[in-house]
Write a structure and sequence with these properties.
The chain is mainly α. Helix 3 packs across helix 5, helix 6 crosses helix 8 and helix 7 packs across helix 8. It has nine helices and three strands, in the order αβαβαβαααααα. Helices cover about 45% and strands about 5% of the residues. The N and C termini lie far apart (about 40 Å). A three-stranded parallel β-sheet has the order 1-2-3, sandwiched between helices.
Length: about 200
């Protein structure tokens, strides 16, 4: 109801579980899927993973919206390719902002929750799946940009920090995503920690 009455948004489908969400995404190819976590049958974490890995849904982003503020859920949602994670008690204006941010190609990583959880997740040896050699293709500047993205900086903030134009900052972020094979900034953050490029102690 909130989205249908807001300019710039169109709700193309609703789903009762993860499997229905994946099927609806395949049919409609939406810009964003708002995904719950706990659902009957295929849960939202699996649904997020299936959408993120679907070859025909490369442009579809997933925003996880849930009542459950549990570390493992955030870890797995981001690992599965989610572009953002919000709790259901979020104010309507914040939800609309989150959808616009994600639609623009950025990730919504709440500093008070998600960055802490990413840092904790990445500090666990059993979760380090990306070998450091995955970063070999990056230039020194691209590594620097990746570290700043992992620190939660926006493109404008990166530009200011490096004394470059916002357009150049966007180009660096885009090239870094392409070289690493990341779908969006959320995956860049996870990969930065997994590779050891950024240490949780730096947060």
């Amino acid at each position: 109801m909130l989205l249908e009455t807001e300019d710039g948004f169109e709700v193309v489908a609703e789903a009762a579980d993860g499997a229905e969400a994946v099927a609806a995404a395949e049919r409609h190819k939406p810009d964003i899927v708002v995904m719950d976590i706990r659902m009957p049958g295929t849960d939202g974490l699996e649904g997020t993973r299936l959408i993120s890995e679907h070859p025909d849904l490369r442009d579809t982003k997933v925003l996880v919206l849930t009542t459950f503020d549990v570390d493992e859920y955030v870890f797995e949602a981001l690992r599965g390719g989610a572009s953002g994670f919000l709790l259901k008690d979020v104010e309507p204006v914040e939800l609309l902002h989150a959808l616009r941010v994600i639609a623009a190609g950025d990730a919504l990583l709440a500093p008070s929750v998600t960055r802490r959880l990413i840092a904790e997740y990445a500090s666990r040896p059993e979760n380090r799946r990306l070998h450091p050699t995955a970063l070999r293709e990056l230039t020194g500047r691209e590594r620097e940009v990746l570290a700043l993205v992992a620190g939660g900086l926006s493109n404008d903030e990166i530009a200011e920090h490096l004394v470059i134009s916002p357009a150049t900052a966007r180009t660096h972020v885009s090239r870094t995503m392409t070289k690493i094979g990341a779908r969006d900034r959320a995956q860049l953050v996870v990969l930065a920690y997994e590779s050891g490029l950024v240490s949780p102690k730096r947060l």
